[in-house]
Specification:
By secondary structure, the protein is mainly β. The protein has 2 helices and 11 strands, in the order E-E-E-E-E-E-H-E-E-E-E-E-H. The strands form 2 sheets. Strands 3, 4, 5, 6, 7, 8, 9, 10 and 11 form a 9-stranded antiparallel sheet that branches. Strands 1-2 form a two-stranded antiparallel ribbon.
């Protein structure tokens, strides 16, 4: 196995396996020129990871499995998205949502409008935009905590 050492801004120095690098052929919105990312989970007991750009070490997105926070979250991938990901089966795919975390986790929001979908078998990824879904880019991650804080 080939390893790559990265000096990331978010996690400090990390060693990754080259075969863990996921290619986003179209980049992600706002960063279309960046194509290679790796998922880094610095705290195994927490449900958060970093989607770290391999070639731009200052760029990392905090991500999580949206289904652990939003039980009724669902969407269907278009045939074009399935084709882009070389997806033949649902069990090949991992869905993540990008979080916006400021100073307090209780105020974190999740972008359910544009989930990140990764095919772990082909190592292809794509941020999928769910037009006409009713989802937004700023769903409170911890809605109960957000409600209590306003009371």
């Amino acid at each position: 196995m080939a390893y790559v050492q990265l000096a990331t801004a978010a996690c400090g120095p990390v060693e990754i396996e080259e075969n863990d690098i996921v290619t986003f052929p179209h980049g992600v919105p706002g960063f279309e020129e960046i194509h290679r990312f790796v998922l880094i989970k610095p705290e195994p007991e927490l449900p958060f990871s970093y989607l770290q750009a391999v070639d731009e070490l200052d760029l990392a997105f905090v991500v999580t499995d949206p289904f652990g926070f939003f039980a009724d979250y669902e969407f269907e991938l278009s045939e074009a998205d399935q084709s882009d990901l070389s997806a033949e089966r649902e069990d090949q795919l991992v869905v993540l949502t990008i979080l916006t975390v400021r100073d307090d986790l209780a105020e974190a929001t999740a972008n359910l409008f544009a989930p990140v979908v990764i095919n772990w078998e082909t190592k292809k990824g794509k941020q999928v935009v769910l037009h006409d879904s009713g989802y937004s880019t700023k769903h409170p991650l911890l809605p109960a905590v957000a409600q209590e804080g306003r009371g």
